[in-house]
Amino acid sequence: MNIPMRDNGSGRKKPGRIKGSWLFLGIMLALYTIVFFFSRQKFLEAMSIDCKIILQMVIPLFIAFLIMLIINLYVGPKKIISLMGEKIGIRGVLLSSLAGIISMGPIYAWYPMLKGLREKGVHFFYLSNFLGNRAIKPFLLPVMISFFGWTYTIIFNGLVWISSIIVSLILSRFCR
Amino acid sequence: MKMAIAATGPNLNANIENRLGLAQYLIIVDTDTGEYDPLKIPVKPGDPGAGINIILLALEKDAKVIVAGYMSPQISHTLSKEGITFIPYKECPINVFLDAYHRGEINRLKQSGTSSNIKEKKPSFPFMMIKQTGSQFFNIMPILLGVVLLIGLARTLVKDEMILNIFQGKPLFDTIFGAFAGSIFTGNPINSYVIGDALLNMGVTPFAVTALLLTWVTVGLVQLPAEIAALGRSFGLARIVVTFVVSIFMALITGSIMGMIR
Fold this sequence. Notes:
- The structure holds two protein chains of two kinds.
- Chain A is built from seven helices and no strands.
- Chain A is mainly α.
- Chain A is elongated.
- The N and C termini of chain A lie far apart (52 Å).
- Chain B folds into two domains: 2-102, 2-Layer Sandwich (Nucleotidyltransferase, domain 5), CATH 3.30.420; 140-261, no CATH class.
- A five-stranded mixed beta sheet of chain B has the order 3-2-1-4-5, covered by helices on one side.
- In chain B, helix 4 runs parallel beside helix 7 (189-202) and helix 9 packs across helix 10.
- The longest helix of chain B is centred in the middle third of the chain and has 33 residues, at 125-157.
- Chain B starts with a strand and ends with a helix.
- Classes of the chains: A mainly alpha, B alpha/beta.
């Protein structure tokens, strides 16, 4: 029998569909083109601000790439999931926080696993703490520091961690 | 073993759907008995989160193999780590695919996005990870560049006073307004840094900016349907509401601390 050709999963896009992110960039470029024709001075002013922001981000983004690569190389989803447990305890709080912090990729990729963990009896506290701590992005810390400074970055991420625990404690009282 | 096949119709004569999120039916086939169960997809094909709903449905039915034309390599890679195999197969009636499967013409996959029928040279692990990281990085670039361009244009065309008319320097009001904005404009945190920095430069209070940054990364209204599908309605809704309220308190604390330090 003739078996049809398989897609090798290379991620082909549907023809004629533009991803929203590219559309957004396209709209911005179109706006710049319009501004260019109406006011060269405003255009140059805007470009100067853009260049400053981009220059501010170059080195932090490079460091971010390296941190992302290290996490991708050494931390797999199985390792992350193994950090969560069934009963609430200090060790579990720290491990589920760590799992959330080092987890990468789109949140959509994690939902099936979280559902599976829930079915295996993992406490809602850990699921919520995992989701809350995903807000702490170690690979973006250099970028955040370059924008807001060390003090703010430390206070902000510390409070994200604390609020994640508070939210998880409240949720674990209501969701069983 | 149960196999979940993304299908264009409710029976085995239907074709395998090219993209998981566009499937109208999910056919659960028991490969041992040959029995099958067609499930109508509860969400509209192509809607945000449709693909993840289909994966959750497959997992609910205890499927160990998912078949569709294409699945995001990141998702299929994560699934494969949990012992769920994704078979990329397309433009083929399901019964033809199953015949081929039973005759052993389609070997089960060990890695996402590759088929044993296609002799591909598998890239080494570090190379794969560099590629994956590059792809994750590349994906955030269009929006990030767009946000940078938007900020440049806004700083040039919008007067600071206009922004300060919205954020009037009242801590509670600014915090709540910032929290609402962050909850709606969810996305990569790096975009919120660019926007937050621009707002601070315009004179907006740290209360509002912190609330925006916090809810941007913790609330995520856009992800709510997928979260409800995975973890239940009460958990999803309660988490959003509690996170929103706690974020407001945390933003007020952060703003106050920053005010004291300065």
